[in-house]
Sequence to fold (565 residues):
Amino acid sequence: MKIRKIAILLLALCVGLLSGCGSRRGAAVIVAGSTSVQPYAEVLAEEYALLHPESVVDVQGGGSSAGISAAVSGTADIGMSSRALHDSELELWNVVIAKDGLAVIIHPDNPLQNLTLEQVRCIYAATISNWGELGGQEAEIHVIAREEGSGTRNAFEDLAMAKVEITPRAIVQDSNGAVRQLVSNDRNAIGFISLGLVDHTVKALELDGVAPTWDNVMGGNYTLYRPFIFVVAGEPTGLAKQFIDYTLSTEGQQLLMHEGLIPTMMLATEGAEQ
Amino acid sequence: MSEEAIETTNGLKAKKDVAGRVFFGLALASIGALALITIFILVQGMPLIAKVGVFDFIFGTKWAPLQGYFGIFPMIVGSVTVTLGAVILGIPISLCCSIFLAEFAPATFRNAFRPAIQLLAGIPSVVYGFWGLLFVVPLIRDYLGGPGLSILAGAIILAIMILPTVISISEVSILALPRQYKEGALALGMTHWQTIRSVQLPAAKSGIVAAIILGIGRAIGETMAVIMVLGNAVALPRSILDPVRTLTTNIGIEMGYATGDHQQALFATGIVLFLIIMVLNATAQYIVRRK
Fold:
Protein backbone atom coordinates (compact mmCIF):
# COMPACT_ATOMS: atom_id res chain seq x y z
CA MET A 1 0.00 0.00 0.00
CA LYS A 2 3.06 2.20 -0.07
CA ILE A 3 2.23 3.34 -3.57
CA ARG A 4 -1.15 4.59 -2.48
CA LYS A 5 0.48 6.56 0.33
CA ILE A 6 2.93 8.11 -2.07
CA ALA A 7 0.11 8.98 -4.43
CA ILE A 8 -1.81 10.65 -1.61
CA LEU A 9 1.29 12.57 -0.60
CA LEU A 10 1.82 13.73 -4.17
CA LEU A 11 -1.78 14.79 -4.43
CA ALA A 12 -1.53 16.71 -1.17
CA LEU A 13 1.62 18.40 -2.45
CA CYS A 14 -0.09 19.46 -5.67
CA VAL A 15 -3.10 20.84 -3.81
CA GLY A 16 -0.75 22.71 -1.49
CA LEU A 17 1.17 24.19 -4.41
CA LEU A 18 -1.95 25.24 -6.25
CA SER A 19 -3.61 26.80 -3.23
CA GLY A 20 -0.67 29.18 -3.02
CA CYS A 21 -1.71 30.69 -6.32
CA GLY A 22 -5.08 31.87 -5.16
CA SER A 23 -4.11 34.21 -2.37
CA ARG A 24 -3.12 37.73 -3.34
CA ARG A 25 -2.26 40.48 -0.95
CA GLY A 26 -4.83 43.23 -0.78
CA ALA A 27 -5.37 45.45 -3.77
CA ALA A 28 -2.60 45.63 -6.34
CA VAL A 29 -1.91 48.06 -9.15
CA ILE A 30 -0.21 46.36 -12.06
CA VAL A 31 2.14 48.60 -14.03
CA ALA A 32 3.60 46.98 -17.15
CA GLY A 33 5.50 47.94 -20.28
CA SER A 34 8.75 49.53 -21.41
CA THR A 35 11.87 48.08 -19.85
CA SER A 36 13.41 51.55 -20.09
CA VAL A 37 10.77 52.97 -17.76
CA GLN A 38 10.66 49.88 -15.57
CA PRO A 39 13.63 50.66 -13.27
CA TYR A 40 12.25 54.14 -12.58
CA ALA A 41 8.73 52.82 -11.99
CA GLU A 42 10.21 50.32 -9.55
CA VAL A 43 11.85 53.10 -7.58
CA LEU A 44 8.54 54.97 -7.53
CA ALA A 45 6.72 51.82 -6.45
CA GLU A 46 9.15 51.22 -3.60
CA GLU A 47 8.74 54.72 -2.25
CA TYR A 48 5.01 54.57 -2.76
CA ALA A 49 4.86 51.32 -0.79
CA LEU A 50 6.56 53.05 2.13
CA LEU A 51 3.88 55.73 2.15
CA HIS A 52 0.97 53.37 1.52
CA PRO A 53 1.86 50.02 3.06
CA GLU A 54 -1.65 48.67 2.47
CA SER A 55 -1.52 48.81 -1.32
CA VAL A 56 0.83 46.96 -3.62
CA VAL A 57 2.26 48.28 -6.88
CA ASP A 58 3.44 45.47 -9.13
CA VAL A 59 5.89 46.61 -11.84
CA GLN A 60 6.52 44.38 -14.86
CA GLY A 61 8.51 44.69 -18.10
CA GLY A 62 7.50 43.51 -21.55
CA GLY A 63 8.18 46.48 -23.79
CA SER A 64 6.32 49.65 -24.73
CA SER A 65 3.92 48.11 -27.23
CA ALA A 66 3.14 45.18 -24.96
CA GLY A 67 2.54 47.61 -22.08
CA ILE A 68 0.11 49.72 -24.06
CA SER A 69 -1.85 46.71 -25.26
CA ALA A 70 -1.87 45.33 -21.69
CA ALA A 71 -3.42 48.59 -20.53
CA VAL A 72 -6.02 48.40 -23.29
CA SER A 73 -6.92 44.80 -22.56
CA GLY A 74 -6.98 45.36 -18.82
CA THR A 75 -4.14 42.92 -18.04
CA ALA A 76 -2.35 45.90 -16.54
CA ASP A 77 -3.83 48.94 -14.81
CA ILE A 78 -1.15 51.25 -16.15
CA GLY A 79 0.92 50.78 -19.31
CA MET A 80 4.41 52.27 -19.58
CA SER A 81 5.75 53.55 -22.88
CA SER A 82 9.17 54.95 -23.71
CA ARG A 83 8.18 56.07 -27.19
CA ALA A 84 5.75 58.66 -28.41
CA LEU A 85 2.28 57.19 -28.85
CA HIS A 86 1.11 56.22 -32.33
CA ASP A 87 -1.94 57.96 -33.72
CA SER A 88 -4.21 55.03 -32.91
CA GLU A 89 -3.06 55.08 -29.29
CA LEU A 90 -3.60 58.79 -28.69
CA GLU A 91 -7.24 58.34 -27.70
CA LEU A 92 -6.10 56.51 -24.57
CA TRP A 93 -5.67 58.50 -21.39
CA ASN A 94 -1.99 59.27 -21.14
CA VAL A 95 0.45 61.43 -19.26
CA VAL A 96 4.14 62.18 -19.77
CA ILE A 97 5.71 61.39 -16.41
CA ALA A 98 9.23 62.46 -17.36
CA LYS A 99 11.60 62.93 -20.25
CA ASP A 100 14.68 60.87 -20.85
CA GLY A 101 17.60 62.17 -22.87
CA LEU A 102 19.46 59.86 -25.23
CA ALA A 103 23.22 60.23 -25.08
CA VAL A 104 25.57 59.19 -27.87
CA ILE A 105 28.55 57.72 -26.05
CA ILE A 106 32.16 56.91 -26.93
CA HIS A 107 35.21 55.68 -25.06
CA PRO A 108 36.72 58.30 -22.70
CA ASP A 109 40.08 58.09 -24.53
CA ASN A 110 38.51 59.00 -27.87
CA PRO A 111 39.61 62.62 -28.56
CA LEU A 112 36.34 63.63 -30.20
CA GLN A 113 34.04 65.92 -28.20
CA ASN A 114 31.43 66.94 -30.69
CA LEU A 115 29.62 65.48 -33.69
CA THR A 116 26.82 66.85 -35.77
CA LEU A 117 23.59 64.90 -35.82
CA GLU A 118 24.29 64.38 -39.53
CA GLN A 119 27.62 62.72 -38.70
CA VAL A 120 25.96 60.46 -36.13
CA ARG A 121 23.42 59.48 -38.76
CA CYS A 122 26.19 58.69 -41.27
CA ILE A 123 28.02 56.57 -38.68
CA TYR A 124 24.90 54.56 -37.97
CA ALA A 125 24.10 54.26 -41.65
CA ALA A 126 27.71 53.02 -42.19
CA THR A 127 28.49 55.72 -44.77
CA ILE A 128 31.22 56.92 -42.40
CA SER A 129 33.16 53.97 -41.06
CA ASN A 130 36.46 55.40 -39.87
CA TRP A 131 37.16 57.76 -36.99
CA GLY A 132 39.77 59.42 -39.22
CA GLU A 133 37.00 60.88 -41.41
CA LEU A 134 35.71 62.70 -38.33
CA GLY A 135 39.05 64.05 -37.17
CA GLY A 136 39.89 61.24 -34.80
CA GLN A 137 42.62 58.63 -35.07
CA GLU A 138 42.60 56.25 -38.03
CA ALA A 139 40.52 53.31 -36.85
CA GLU A 140 37.39 51.49 -37.84
CA ILE A 141 34.27 52.64 -36.01
CA HIS A 142 32.57 49.88 -34.03
CA VAL A 143 28.90 50.76 -34.19
CA ILE A 144 26.75 49.47 -31.35
CA ALA A 145 22.94 49.56 -31.48
CA ARG A 146 20.01 48.08 -29.59
CA GLU A 147 17.87 45.19 -30.80
CA GLU A 148 14.87 45.49 -33.09
CA GLY A 149 11.75 46.31 -31.05
CA SER A 150 13.60 48.10 -28.25
CA GLY A 151 12.08 51.44 -27.24
CA THR A 152 15.52 53.02 -27.04
CA ARG A 153 16.35 51.93 -30.59
CA ASN A 154 12.96 53.12 -31.73
CA ALA A 155 13.48 56.53 -30.14
CA PHE A 156 16.97 56.81 -31.62
CA GLU A 157 15.63 55.95 -35.08
CA ASP A 158 12.89 58.55 -34.77
CA LEU A 159 15.04 61.31 -33.31
CA ALA A 160 18.41 60.87 -34.98
CA MET A 161 18.12 58.70 -38.05
CA ALA A 162 15.38 60.52 -39.99
CA LYS A 163 14.17 57.42 -41.88
CA VAL A 164 17.71 56.28 -42.65
CA GLU A 165 18.21 52.67 -41.67
CA ILE A 166 20.69 51.61 -39.00
CA THR A 167 23.30 49.39 -40.66
CA PRO A 168 22.74 45.66 -40.21
CA ARG A 169 26.47 45.37 -39.51
CA ALA A 170 25.98 47.19 -36.21
CA ILE A 171 26.69 45.15 -33.11
CA VAL A 172 23.46 44.54 -31.23
CA GLN A 173 23.16 44.46 -27.45
CA ASP A 174 19.95 43.96 -25.53
CA SER A 175 20.26 46.51 -22.72
CA ASN A 176 21.52 50.00 -21.96
CA GLY A 177 23.95 48.49 -19.48
CA ALA A 178 25.47 46.11 -22.04
CA VAL A 179 25.98 48.95 -24.52
CA ARG A 180 27.70 51.09 -21.89
CA GLN A 181 29.88 48.17 -20.80
CA LEU A 182 31.04 47.54 -24.37
CA VAL A 183 31.73 51.18 -25.14
CA SER A 184 33.69 51.59 -21.92
CA ASN A 185 35.98 48.73 -23.01
CA ASP A 186 36.44 49.56 -26.68
CA ARG A 187 38.24 52.75 -27.76
CA ASN A 188 36.67 52.61 -31.21
CA ALA A 189 33.08 52.02 -30.20
CA ILE A 190 30.08 54.29 -30.37
CA GLY A 191 26.69 53.63 -28.81
CA PHE A 192 23.55 55.31 -27.52
CA ILE A 193 22.01 54.95 -24.08
CA SER A 194 19.62 56.61 -21.71
CA LEU A 195 21.13 59.89 -20.46
CA GLY A 196 20.40 58.92 -16.87
CA LEU A 197 22.74 55.95 -17.20
CA VAL A 198 25.81 57.81 -18.47
CA ASP A 199 28.66 57.53 -15.97
CA HIS A 200 32.41 58.21 -15.84
CA THR A 201 33.27 55.02 -17.78
CA VAL A 202 32.04 56.55 -21.04
CA LYS A 203 32.01 59.96 -22.69
CA ALA A 204 28.74 61.52 -23.86
CA LEU A 205 29.23 63.47 -27.10
CA GLU A 206 28.03 66.97 -27.75
CA LEU A 207 25.63 67.02 -30.69
CA ASP A 208 25.76 70.07 -32.96
CA GLY A 209 27.73 71.75 -30.20
CA VAL A 210 25.13 71.14 -27.51
CA ALA A 211 26.19 69.06 -24.52
CA PRO A 212 23.73 66.41 -23.37
CA THR A 213 23.16 67.95 -20.01
CA TRP A 214 20.09 68.15 -18.00
CA ASP A 215 19.75 71.89 -18.48
CA ASN A 216 20.04 71.62 -22.24
CA VAL A 217 17.29 69.01 -22.39
CA MET A 218 15.12 71.10 -20.07
CA GLY A 219 15.72 74.17 -22.19
CA GLY A 220 15.00 72.31 -25.39
CA ASN A 221 18.47 72.83 -26.92
CA TYR A 222 19.38 69.16 -26.88
CA THR A 223 16.90 67.44 -29.12
CA LEU A 224 17.62 63.79 -28.48
CA TYR A 225 15.07 62.99 -25.81
CA ARG A 226 11.96 60.91 -25.57
CA PRO A 227 8.92 60.93 -23.33
CA PHE A 228 8.22 58.35 -20.65
CA ILE A 229 4.48 57.89 -20.71
CA PHE A 230 1.87 56.25 -18.49
CA VAL A 231 -1.14 54.98 -20.42
CA VAL A 232 -4.50 54.02 -18.93
CA ALA A 233 -7.61 52.70 -20.67
CA GLY A 234 -10.18 55.32 -19.74
CA GLU A 235 -9.90 57.86 -16.94
CA PRO A 236 -7.71 56.45 -14.12
CA THR A 237 -9.56 55.64 -10.93
CA GLY A 238 -8.85 54.32 -7.46
CA LEU A 239 -5.41 52.94 -6.73
CA ALA A 240 -4.10 53.52 -10.25
CA LYS A 241 -5.03 57.19 -9.96
CA GLN A 242 -3.38 57.42 -6.56
CA PHE A 243 -0.14 55.99 -7.95
CA ILE A 244 -0.20 58.33 -10.95
CA ASP A 245 -0.91 61.30 -8.69
CA TYR A 246 2.06 60.29 -6.56
CA THR A 247 4.28 60.03 -9.66
CA LEU A 248 3.29 63.52 -10.77
CA SER A 249 3.57 65.05 -7.29
CA THR A 250 6.59 67.15 -6.40
CA GLU A 251 7.88 64.24 -4.36
CA GLY A 252 7.56 61.72 -7.17
CA GLN A 253 9.06 64.07 -9.73
CA GLN A 254 12.00 64.83 -7.47
CA LEU A 255 12.58 61.13 -7.10
CA LEU A 256 12.69 60.72 -10.88
CA MET A 257 14.97 63.73 -11.19
CA HIS A 258 17.27 62.21 -8.62
CA GLU A 259 17.41 59.04 -10.74
CA GLY A 260 18.56 61.04 -13.76
CA LEU A 261 15.34 61.80 -15.62
CA ILE A 262 13.99 65.19 -16.60
CA PRO A 263 10.77 65.88 -14.72
CA THR A 264 7.89 67.26 -16.76
CA MET A 265 5.72 68.69 -14.03
CA MET A 266 8.25 71.22 -12.84
CA LEU A 267 8.98 72.97 -16.09
CA ALA A 268 5.68 72.74 -17.85
CA THR A 269 2.20 71.79 -16.87
CA GLU A 270 0.79 71.51 -20.34
CA GLY A 271 2.16 68.01 -20.94
CA ALA A 272 0.45 66.73 -17.85
CA GLU A 273 -3.09 66.05 -18.88
CA GLN A 274 -4.85 66.04 -22.16
CA MET B 1 -0.92 -23.73 -4.17
CA SER B 2 -2.70 -22.67 -0.98
CA GLU B 3 -5.35 -19.98 -1.11
CA GLU B 4 -3.19 -17.67 0.94
CA ALA B 5 -0.32 -17.97 -1.50
CA ILE B 6 -2.58 -17.19 -4.42
CA GLU B 7 -3.83 -14.13 -2.53
CA THR B 8 -0.27 -12.88 -2.05
CA THR B 9 0.65 -13.42 -5.68
CA ASN B 10 -2.44 -11.58 -6.78
CA GLY B 11 -1.59 -8.77 -4.39
CA LEU B 12 1.94 -8.58 -5.74
CA LYS B 13 0.66 -8.61 -9.27
CA ALA B 14 -1.79 -5.82 -8.53
CA LYS B 15 1.00 -3.78 -6.97
CA LYS B 16 3.18 -4.39 -9.97
CA ASP B 17 0.37 -3.25 -12.24
CA VAL B 18 -0.13 -0.07 -10.27
CA ALA B 19 3.59 0.65 -10.31
CA GLY B 20 3.70 -0.08 -14.02
CA ARG B 21 0.88 2.33 -14.68
CA VAL B 22 2.42 5.07 -12.57
CA PHE B 23 5.71 4.79 -14.41
CA PHE B 24 3.96 4.61 -17.74
CA GLY B 25 2.03 7.75 -16.86
CA LEU B 26 5.20 9.60 -15.89
CA ALA B 27 6.98 8.45 -19.03
CA LEU B 28 4.01 9.62 -21.03
CA ALA B 29 4.23 13.02 -19.34
CA SER B 30 7.72 13.63 -20.67
CA ILE B 31 6.71 12.61 -24.19
CA GLY B 32 3.61 14.73 -23.76
CA ALA B 33 5.73 17.75 -22.88
CA LEU B 34 7.74 17.24 -26.05
CA ALA B 35 4.58 16.92 -28.11
CA LEU B 36 3.04 20.03 -26.59
CA ILE B 37 6.16 22.11 -27.15
CA THR B 38 6.45 20.91 -30.74
CA ILE B 39 2.81 21.64 -31.50
CA PHE B 40 3.03 25.05 -29.84
CA ILE B 41 6.12 26.09 -31.79
CA LEU B 42 4.60 24.87 -35.05
CA VAL B 43 1.26 26.57 -34.46
CA GLN B 44 2.96 29.83 -33.55
CA GLY B 45 5.60 29.81 -36.25
CA MET B 46 4.09 28.17 -39.31
CA PRO B 47 1.62 30.96 -40.23
CA LEU B 48 4.50 33.40 -40.56
CA ILE B 49 6.59 31.03 -42.68
CA ALA B 50 3.53 30.50 -44.87
CA LYS B 51 3.03 34.24 -45.14
CA VAL B 52 6.64 35.09 -45.96
CA GLY B 53 7.28 31.97 -48.02
CA VAL B 54 9.70 29.21 -47.08
CA PHE B 55 12.34 30.32 -49.57
CA ASP B 56 12.25 34.00 -48.60
CA PHE B 57 12.29 33.12 -44.93
CA ILE B 58 15.30 30.83 -45.12
CA PHE B 59 17.29 32.56 -47.85
CA GLY B 60 16.25 36.18 -47.26
CA THR B 61 19.22 38.26 -46.11
CA LYS B 62 17.34 41.15 -44.57
CA TRP B 63 15.97 40.94 -41.04
CA ALA B 64 13.90 43.95 -40.00
CA PRO B 65 10.75 42.46 -38.48
CA LEU B 66 9.14 45.81 -37.72
CA GLN B 67 9.36 46.75 -41.40
CA GLY B 68 8.19 43.34 -42.54
CA TYR B 69 11.50 41.77 -43.58
CA PHE B 70 11.97 38.28 -42.20
CA GLY B 71 15.08 36.75 -43.75
CA ILE B 72 17.07 34.49 -41.45
CA PHE B 73 19.86 33.49 -43.84
CA PRO B 74 22.52 35.59 -42.04
CA MET B 75 21.64 33.78 -38.82
CA ILE B 76 21.82 30.36 -40.42
CA VAL B 77 25.25 31.33 -41.72
CA GLY B 78 26.08 32.62 -38.23
CA SER B 79 25.06 29.37 -36.54
CA VAL B 80 26.95 27.28 -39.07
CA THR B 81 30.19 29.29 -38.99
CA VAL B 82 30.34 29.56 -35.21
CA THR B 83 29.63 25.86 -34.81
CA LEU B 84 32.15 24.95 -37.47
CA GLY B 85 34.73 27.08 -35.69
CA ALA B 86 33.95 25.33 -32.41
CA VAL B 87 34.36 21.94 -34.10
CA ILE B 88 37.70 22.89 -35.68
CA LEU B 89 39.03 24.15 -32.36
CA GLY B 90 37.36 21.72 -30.00
CA ILE B 91 37.32 18.32 -31.69
CA PRO B 92 41.10 17.75 -32.01
CA ILE B 93 41.56 18.68 -28.35
CA SER B 94 38.68 16.44 -27.30
CA LEU B 95 39.92 13.46 -29.31
CA CYS B 96 43.49 13.71 -28.03
CA CYS B 97 42.15 14.07 -24.53
CA SER B 98 39.90 11.02 -24.79
CA ILE B 99 42.68 8.88 -26.32
CA PHE B 100 45.00 10.00 -23.55
CA LEU B 101 42.44 9.16 -20.85
CA ALA B 102 41.54 5.80 -22.35
CA GLU B 103 45.02 4.60 -23.24
CA PHE B 104 47.87 6.50 -21.64
CA ALA B 105 46.79 8.13 -18.40
CA PRO B 106 47.84 6.42 -15.16
CA ALA B 107 44.85 5.43 -13.03
CA THR B 108 45.35 8.09 -10.37
CA PHE B 109 45.70 10.80 -12.96
CA ARG B 110 42.64 9.60 -14.80
CA ASN B 111 40.57 9.58 -11.63
CA ALA B 112 41.42 13.20 -11.01
CA PHE B 113 41.13 14.27 -14.63
CA ARG B 114 37.76 12.78 -15.45
CA PRO B 115 35.71 14.56 -12.75
CA ALA B 116 37.47 17.79 -13.65
CA ILE B 117 36.24 17.49 -17.23
CA GLN B 118 32.77 16.59 -16.03
CA LEU B 119 32.88 19.75 -13.95
CA LEU B 120 33.27 21.76 -17.16
CA ALA B 121 29.81 20.54 -18.13
CA GLY B 122 28.43 21.82 -14.85
CA ILE B 123 29.51 25.45 -15.28
CA PRO B 124 26.44 27.53 -16.19
CA SER B 125 26.62 28.85 -19.75
CA VAL B 126 26.14 32.44 -18.62
CA VAL B 127 29.41 32.14 -16.72
CA TYR B 128 31.19 31.00 -19.88
CA GLY B 129 29.68 33.97 -21.69
CA PHE B 130 30.72 36.43 -19.03
CA TRP B 131 34.23 35.05 -18.93
CA GLY B 132 34.36 35.26 -22.72
CA LEU B 133 33.20 38.86 -22.69
CA LEU B 134 35.73 39.98 -20.13
CA PHE B 135 38.68 37.84 -21.19
CA VAL B 136 38.46 36.42 -24.72
CA VAL B 137 36.82 39.42 -26.40
CA PRO B 138 39.41 42.01 -25.25
CA LEU B 139 42.24 39.64 -26.27
CA ILE B 140 40.83 39.34 -29.79
CA ARG B 141 40.17 43.09 -29.98
CA ASP B 142 43.68 44.02 -28.86
CA TYR B 143 45.69 41.44 -30.81
CA LEU B 144 43.65 40.64 -33.90
CA GLY B 145 41.57 43.78 -34.38
CA GLY B 146 37.89 44.33 -34.99
CA PRO B 147 35.37 44.84 -32.22
CA GLY B 148 36.34 41.59 -30.48
CA LEU B 149 32.75 40.41 -30.40
CA SER B 150 33.11 37.94 -33.22
CA ILE B 151 32.71 34.49 -34.72
CA LEU B 152 36.12 33.63 -33.30
CA ALA B 153 35.13 34.58 -29.74
CA GLY B 154 31.98 32.48 -29.99
CA ALA B 155 33.86 29.54 -31.48
CA ILE B 156 36.43 29.60 -28.68
CA ILE B 157 33.75 29.63 -25.97
CA LEU B 158 31.73 26.88 -27.66
CA ALA B 159 34.85 24.78 -28.25
CA ILE B 160 35.39 24.73 -24.49
CA MET B 161 31.74 24.03 -23.83
CA ILE B 162 31.58 20.95 -26.06
CA LEU B 163 34.74 19.40 -24.58
CA PRO B 164 33.02 17.39 -21.81
CA THR B 165 30.38 15.90 -24.15
CA VAL B 166 32.83 14.84 -26.84
CA ILE B 167 35.58 13.68 -24.48
CA SER B 168 33.42 11.46 -22.31
CA ILE B 169 31.46 9.81 -25.12
CA SER B 170 34.51 9.09 -27.25
CA GLU B 171 36.48 7.85 -24.25
CA VAL B 172 33.68 5.44 -23.38
CA SER B 173 33.52 4.17 -26.94
CA ILE B 174 37.27 3.49 -26.96
CA LEU B 175 37.10 1.75 -23.60
CA ALA B 176 34.12 -0.34 -24.72
CA LEU B 177 36.10 -2.09 -27.46
CA PRO B 178 36.73 -5.82 -26.87
CA ARG B 179 40.13 -6.34 -25.27
CA GLN B 180 41.05 -8.84 -27.97
CA TYR B 181 41.38 -6.07 -30.56
CA LYS B 182 44.17 -4.42 -28.68
CA GLU B 183 45.78 -7.68 -27.55
CA GLY B 184 45.69 -9.10 -31.05
CA ALA B 185 47.23 -6.01 -32.55
CA LEU B 186 49.99 -5.88 -29.95
CA ALA B 187 50.64 -9.63 -30.41
CA LEU B 188 51.13 -9.02 -34.12
CA GLY B 189 53.98 -6.72 -33.22
CA MET B 190 52.31 -3.35 -33.56
CA THR B 191 53.47 -0.55 -31.30
CA HIS B 192 51.01 1.00 -28.90
CA TRP B 193 50.51 4.05 -31.13
CA GLN B 194 50.03 1.91 -34.23
CA THR B 195 47.42 -0.10 -32.33
CA ILE B 196 45.53 3.02 -31.38
CA ARG B 197 45.73 4.55 -34.83
CA SER B 198 44.97 1.62 -37.06
CA VAL B 199 42.90 -0.69 -34.83
CA GLN B 200 41.22 1.04 -31.93
CA LEU B 201 40.26 4.37 -33.49
CA PRO B 202 38.73 2.80 -36.62
CA ALA B 203 36.86 0.30 -34.47
CA ALA B 204 35.51 3.04 -32.19
CA LYS B 205 34.71 5.26 -35.15
CA SER B 206 30.93 5.19 -34.87
CA GLY B 207 31.01 6.16 -31.20
CA ILE B 208 33.44 8.98 -31.88
CA VAL B 209 31.40 10.33 -34.79
CA ALA B 210 28.29 10.22 -32.63
CA ALA B 211 30.19 12.13 -29.93
CA ILE B 212 31.17 14.79 -32.43
CA ILE B 213 27.61 15.13 -33.70
CA LEU B 214 26.24 15.45 -30.19
CA GLY B 215 28.88 18.09 -29.55
CA ILE B 216 27.73 19.95 -32.66
CA GLY B 217 24.15 19.73 -31.41
CA ARG B 218 25.22 21.23 -28.10
CA ALA B 219 27.10 24.03 -29.86
CA ILE B 220 24.30 24.94 -32.23
CA GLY B 221 21.73 25.04 -29.44
CA GLU B 222 23.75 27.15 -27.03
CA THR B 223 22.30 30.62 -26.46
CA MET B 224 23.31 32.49 -23.35
CA ALA B 225 27.06 32.20 -23.71
CA VAL B 226 27.12 33.25 -27.34
CA ILE B 227 24.65 36.12 -26.93
CA MET B 228 27.33 37.84 -24.86
CA VAL B 229 30.31 37.34 -27.16
CA LEU B 230 28.99 37.24 -30.74
CA GLY B 231 27.91 40.86 -31.16
CA ASN B 232 24.57 39.78 -32.69
CA ALA B 233 24.81 41.81 -35.90
CA VAL B 234 22.37 40.55 -38.56
CA ALA B 235 24.70 40.66 -41.55
CA LEU B 236 26.65 38.11 -43.52
CA PRO B 237 30.14 38.01 -41.99
CA ARG B 238 33.18 38.87 -44.11
CA SER B 239 35.79 37.41 -41.75
CA ILE B 240 35.95 35.46 -38.52
CA LEU B 241 36.50 38.74 -36.70
CA ASP B 242 33.06 40.03 -37.69
CA PRO B 243 30.09 39.92 -35.34
CA VAL B 244 27.27 37.55 -36.28
CA ARG B 245 23.95 36.43 -34.89
CA THR B 246 22.94 32.79 -34.55
CA LEU B 247 19.44 31.34 -34.68
CA THR B 248 19.34 30.88 -30.94
CA THR B 249 20.57 34.36 -30.07
CA ASN B 250 18.03 35.85 -32.45
CA ILE B 251 15.29 34.44 -30.26
CA GLY B 252 17.08 35.27 -27.04
CA ILE B 253 17.85 38.87 -27.83
CA GLU B 254 14.54 39.92 -29.36
CA MET B 255 11.91 37.98 -27.45
CA GLY B 256 11.58 40.67 -24.79
CA TYR B 257 9.86 43.16 -27.05
CA ALA B 258 8.44 41.01 -29.80
CA THR B 259 4.73 41.05 -30.50
CA GLY B 260 2.55 39.92 -33.40
CA ASP B 261 4.41 38.93 -36.57
CA HIS B 262 7.74 39.65 -34.92
CA GLN B 263 6.99 37.12 -32.18
CA GLN B 264 5.80 34.57 -34.73
CA ALA B 265 9.00 35.10 -36.69
CA LEU B 266 10.98 34.17 -33.58
CA PHE B 267 8.96 30.98 -33.20
CA ALA B 268 9.57 30.30 -36.88
CA THR B 269 13.31 30.70 -36.19
CA GLY B 270 12.75 28.11 -33.48
CA ILE B 271 11.23 25.70 -36.02
CA VAL B 272 14.32 25.92 -38.22
CA LEU B 273 16.56 25.36 -35.21
CA PHE B 274 14.40 22.46 -34.07
CA LEU B 275 14.70 20.79 -37.48
CA ILE B 276 18.47 21.22 -37.58
CA ILE B 277 18.90 19.70 -34.12
CA MET B 278 16.52 16.85 -34.91
CA VAL B 279 18.48 15.96 -38.04
CA LEU B 280 21.74 16.06 -36.07
CA ASN B 281 20.44 13.83 -33.28
CA ALA B 282 18.86 11.39 -35.72
CA THR B 283 22.16 11.15 -37.60
CA ALA B 284 24.01 10.47 -34.35
CA GLN B 285 21.54 7.73 -33.40
CA TYR B 286 21.71 6.19 -36.85
CA ILE B 287 25.50 6.05 -36.76
CA VAL B 288 25.54 4.47 -33.30
CA ARG B 289 22.92 1.86 -34.27
CA ARG B 290 24.60 0.96 -37.54
CA LYS B 291 27.45 -0.51 -35.57
Observations:
- Chain B touches chain A at residues 15, 18-19, 22, 62-66, 74, 137-138, 141, 146-149, 227, 231-235, 242-243, 245, 253-254, 256-259, 262 (CB under 8 Å).
- Residues 3-52 of chain B form the longest helix (50 residues).
- DSSP finds twelve helices and two strands in chain B.
